[in-house]
Every structure is written in structure tokens, then in C-alpha cells.
Amino acid sequence: MNTWFITGASRGFGALITERVLAQGDAVVATARNPKQIADRFGDHPNLLAIALDVTDEAQARAAADTAIAKFGKIDVLLNNASFGLMGAVEEASAAEVEAVYRTNVFGLLNVTRAVLPHMRAARSGRILNISSIGGYRGAAGFGVYSSTKFAVEGLSEALHAELAPLGIHVTVVEPGYFRTDFLDATSLSVSPTIIEDYAATAGRVRNVATGLNHNQPGDPVRLAQVLIDFADTPNSPVRLPLGSDTVATIEARHVSDAAILTGWRQISVSTDFPVEPTTVAA
Fold it and tell me: Which domains can be identified in the chain, with CATH numbers?
């Protein structure tokens, strides 16, 4: 029986995965700022431990990890799922808005990971799944600040993958595209109130498109939840797991555009090295 530690478990991907993990007989430490929402949804289940956790509170994260170990004796899978979005042009976002999204999406993920890792290192086993986004692979107008937090998650996950693999701990960053969850609702997505007309055709257009896309996204969250549950026991797991046809198309297009940059700018790119001195051969 695996023990999962899931942040943001009261709704969205977190709630779906909690439900399915419990159904297959595994244990779940389900965390949320308001654990009553978890109890109301899942009831009194012997394999469920609902804990209050604001991921931005490092002391609370460590206490939650310790409580999980006291209850179940181990943490096999850490799912860093808690995050929220911020929509608006980069210039439109206030310092307070930027700091808030970084506190949850980046520093919160770090708080929970640092709290759980001592237990995984002691066991020399475990798996960490960090939820990124299609926006963690490609920045887009209107989602620049949010994407930057997911770019940070990608970089942290790559480094953790290299650092922890020798210790028997597997790390994968998950890159969902647009899935039919509540991500575009006000509960998960903040919209900067500042509107600069110069961005009407870029970030402003994205605001309008997002309204129409809400609950019409192509991805099925139930299928994603099952993929991640099955993935928890996958050997030789990749450092990245793209999910959704839109993410796959985005990565493929990015590879083409990056290859074009290298082709067009190669001579300039390599010209910044020190000149290579010719090798002299002794007579």
C-alpha cells in the first residue's frame, strides 16, 4: 500500500486523485487550507488523513509531514499540486500579485518538498510529482507571471531529478495542457484588475478567450488523474511528463522554433567563446 501526500486536495486534480487513490486501497494525506472541505467530500475513511496546510507556511508544512509519518509510517508519493493562476500582462500585475503567486506556486512547493524529503531520504525511496503546466514550457501573453512560476517549477524539478536519483527517489514534473477543471474559475485564477489598453490585442485578448474556454477545455481531468496514479509505480520514469494533445503540440512547435533560432543565429551564438588556439605538433 502506497501513502500519498497531496497538496491542494480539496478540489481539481488533487480531489480527483485523492478519490481514486482511496478507491484502490492506498492511503492519502490530503492537505488543504480548509481540511473540512476534504472531510465533507470524502467522509471518515480509515486510509484518509485530512490536514490543514497553507503551503506558504514552512513550519506548518514540516508539522504536516511529521503528522503523516506518525499516522502511516511513510510517504511514498508527494504530489505538489497546490497552485493558482494570475492572468494579465506582466506590466499590469502588481508587486503584491506577483509575490502572492510565487509564494504558493514556487516557495510553497519548496516548503512542502523540503519537509517531506528527509523522510524519503531516510527510506531511500519515494516519488515526487510536481504539477507544472503547458505554461511551464512556453510563456504566453496574459499568463507571463504565472508561466514564470511554472518555469521555476520545471528548473527545480530537473535539478531534484538529478540530485535525488542516486538516493532512490524519482522526480517528475507533470505538464498538463488545458483540462476541464475549475482552473479558469475565480477560485483558482486571479485576474489583475489593472488594464492597460496598449495590451488589448495581446493580454487583453487572452482575457476574453479564457472566458469562452472555461469548462470547454479539451483535457479530461479524470483520465489525467488515472494516468498519474498508474505512473506512481512506473520504473525509469521521465523527468517530464507532458499530458494533453495541446501540450504535445506546443512542445513539438517549440522544438521547431528553437531549431530555427539555432540555425539562423549559430555563428553569432558560438562567436562569444575565446578563440581556440591552433595545436602545434612537436617535430
Answer: 3-244 (3.40.50.720)
